[in-house]
Structure formats: structure tokens, C-alpha cells
Amino acid sequence: MKSSQYIDILGQQVSKRTVLFVVGAVTIVVGGVVGLLYYLLLAGSAPIVATAATPATPATAAIPATAATPATPTAMVVEPNVRHRVNQSNSKMSSQSSLVTLLERHLEATQLSAVDSLIVHGAASASTVTCELVMMARRPNLYTLKTEGIGFEYTSELGYNGQIGWSRLDLLNLNKDDVEFFTRVALFESSLAHLAWSYQSRQAVESGLESVLERLPNEQWQGRVCAVVVSRGLLPISIYHYIDQQSNEEVYRRTQALRGTDLVDLEMHLAPSDAAASPRLPMGYELYFDGTLHDTIAITKIRPNRGVFKSRFDAPSDATATGLSPRAARAN
After folding, report:
1. How many helices (DSSP H) and strands (DSSP E) are in the chain?
2. 208-227 confidence digits (pLDDT tens)
3. What does the pLDDT look like over 87-138, one tens digit per residue?
4. What is the DSSP letter of 69?
5. Which residues contact 67 (CB under 8 A, 6 or more apart)?
6. DSSP per residue over 215-235, as a string?
7. Nearest to 213 by CA among 222, 225, 201
8. Full set of structural domains in the chain with CATH
9. 170 pLDDT tier (thresholds 50, 70, 90)
10. Distances 185 to 175, 301, 322 between C-alpha atoms, Å
């Protein structure tokens, strides 16, 4: 009987110890080869990283490839610029969002959203003289202002058709500079709905709201905290509108206009609106030239959406044209 310490392999008696030694040795060799192959597969990109890192130290070699490549310092330089652009964009969007919110509240308060035209009747008083006043307006930037003397012979009419201004005046002693000045004054007075119409204009939609309106820091005016918005681009003057933060209605406006070589400060102190009226517009105003009261206007009737045709704002055949352009205001 053969001993249990031997194994018959191909007719030869081989010690079990020898067989186990050989099997173990083979297993170790095979395991080592497999382990080496696996290591080479995992470290296949290691030579590239080592080349990019200068110089290659043991600590650098231990850094992950994503941190050791030259892309890391580039990202560190670019990141602040990207963040700066995002902050600029967010700031611009925040400012525009604030302006839109303000204008929406203004539209709600004044009920001008669906008003396409206006005919405004009133009386203008200056010293001992009183004139009947009629203003006509059509969105986005067509205006006329006509005054007729009460108790004396006087008629004047000034208008703007979106491209040029024009005038018909009984006063013959006005030169060209005076005519252009008073045409700008008439636009300043008659554009009571200009803020709302600028907001809803085609130019605001196609070129961006900032092309016609810009919100400025709040100011206090006669004890009221007012949002300040400047309108430009649709008229040959830039108008600064002061919106009362409580009523969301315009309470004050200002601009400047050339009279010859003199720059005149124009101001309108707007009266409160009629709470029962629609739309709600100021029921009068005081007009100031360089801080001095020029005349006082009391508005008696406001008629919206009366079908005022665009041709009504064209210059009559006997009118004098004035070279007003909205582009001049946009540059201011």
C-alpha cells in the first residue's frame, strides 16, 4: 500500500510537500504578474503628470493629476474675472428689475397702461394774464400745446411730430433761439404721460429699457422720498422724473434747455391727481425758470383715448419748423 505522504503523478510518486510548494510558488508568481499589470493600467497617465510637474518631487507625485496639471493656476486666474462679470450682470439685472417694479407700480397708480392719447384742458396764469390751454398727446412722443388769451388777442401753438418741432406764435419779437427754447418748454409741459409711454414704447422693447429710461438713486423732494428716473431718446430733452414712493405718482420733474447761449433750469411742481379720475394725472403744476415761478397751470379736464390722429401733430403750412432731434437728448 502506498504512503499517504506521496501523490501519483504520471506514474511517479511525488511528495505532497513538493506539490504544495510548487503550487504556492506558481500562485505567488501569477499574483505578482497580475498585480504589476493592474498597477501599470492605473498609473498609465502617471508619466504625463510627472512631465508637467516641474520639478517632480515625492510630494508632487502624490498630488492627484487634476491638481498637478497646469490647468489649475489658469483656473485660479480666470475665476475672479468670471465672478466679476456675473456680479456685473446681476447688478444690471437687479437695477433693471427695480426700475420695472417701479414703473409697473406707476402704471397701476396712474392707470395709464391702456391710454394711447390725451387731450388736456386748463388755464395758464402769469402775473395778471390768463390764457386758455389745450395740450394734445399721442404715444409714444407726439405733443402739441396751444394757448389763447382770455380777454386779449393772443394765440400760440407749439408741437412736435417725433422728428421736428414747430411753432405758430403771435409774438413777432422772438428769434429762432427763443422759438426753439419755448418749443422745448412746451414739450416739457405737455409730456405728462411720457414716463409711462417711454416704458411701453417700441424702442424700449427692441433696444432695451435702458435705451429710454434709467433709474438713479432716490432723492428727497419737499420731504418726500422719491425714486428718480431719467427719460431720454424719445424727445429732444432729457427729463428727470421724481416718483413719490408712497403714491407712485410723479410729483416733480426737471430738465435744462438752451436759450441762446444760456442753459435754463426748468422745473415743474406737479399738483396731486384727482383720486376719482382715470387716468390719474396731476391736476395742475407750477412752471419755474431758473428757480423763479414763470406761470401756474390749473387743469380742468382730461380726456383719454379720443382718437387723436398722428397727422394732427404735423407742422401746419404756416408754422415755423425748429431743428429739434431726439438724438441730441440721448447724448446728454
Report:
1. 9, 15
2. 999 999 999 999 999 999 99
3. 333 444 456 779 999 999 999 999 999 999 999 999 999 988 999 999 999 9
4. S
5. none
6. EEEEEEETTEEEEEEEE-SSS
7. 201
8. 117-331 (2.50.20)
9. confident
10. 15, 21, 13
